[in-house]
Design brief:
The chain is α/β, with parallel strands linked by helices. 50% of the residues lie in helices and 12% in strands. It is built from 10 helices and 6 strands; from the N terminus they run αββααβαβααββαααα. It has a 6-stranded mixed β-sheet, sandwiched between helices. α1 runs antiparallel to α4. The mean pLDDT is 95. The structure holds uracil (URA). The site of uracil has 12 residues, from loops.
Length: 206
């Protein structure tokens, strides 16, 4: 699949979206951005003030914090894919409503299908609940990787929460430090499960 045009077309659809009332109160929709072939996808909650102004995810204080975490593991934001559960800012940064999350779901599903990341890092409780709906709560499971549909889900505190609380900042930095080894394991697992060259030959015979 040519991922770049597929993501660009999806971003156009998101910018024109009116599936829920947030479509008429946003300044800009925030589809997401990054490397279309990224191995890691970061999924936040929803755009805040700065993201709504610029149409880009994680560009305010939370974004600067995320970039500093990435730098700790020698990555830049251009090397990963960054998006949100909901693509438009709720008024006054209120929590996203269940119907808004449901309306946006097909967009996140398609982003995951196109980028096909090995590891999804969830930022905050709404993103965690999207992927791990019956989990006991972020304080209990942050930093604990779980496999879902052949991908690793790593729940983290939201950057805004980590910025407010030194204890959560320390925990988030520790959780983040696992990413390189988790990725190495995920690469090995995917390579093992990839069809052998023989399988391709057989497929082409029929
Ligand atoms: N918080 C989020 O959850 N997402 C953003 O894009 C910015 C802040």
């Amino acid at each position: 699949m040519n991922k770049e045009p597929a993501l660009a077309q999806l971003a156009e659809e998101i910018r024109a979206c009116r599936r829920c009332p947030l479509g008429s109160v946003r300044t800009h929709a925030v589809p997401g951005e990054g490397d279309p072939n990224a191995e890691i996808m970061f999924v936040g909650e929803g755009p805040g003030y700065h993201e709504d102004r610029q149409g880009r995810p994680f560009v305010g204080n939370s974004g600067a914090y995320l970039e500093s975490l990435l730098a700790d593991i020698h990555l830049t934001r251009e090397q990963v894919y960054i998006c949100n559960v909901i693509k438009c800012r709720p008024p006054h940064n209120r929590d996203p409503l269940p119907q808004e999350i449901a309306a946006c779901k097909p967009y996140l599903e398609r982003q995951i299908e196109i980028v096909d990341p090995l590891l999804i890092v969830t930022l905050g409780r709404f993103s965690m609940a999207y992927f791990l709906p019956n989990s006991p709560g972020i304080s209990r499971i942050h930093g604990k990787p779980t496999e879902v549909d052949g991908r690793i889900i790593l729940p983290l505190f939201h950057p805004a929460a980590a910025l407010r609380n030194p204890k959560w900042d320390r925990a988030t930095r520790q959780d983040f430090a696992q990413i390189p080894s988790l990725l190495a394991k995920a690469r090995a697992t995917r390579a093992q499960n990839a069809p052998a060259p023989d399988d391709f030959e057989q497929l082409s015979l029929f």
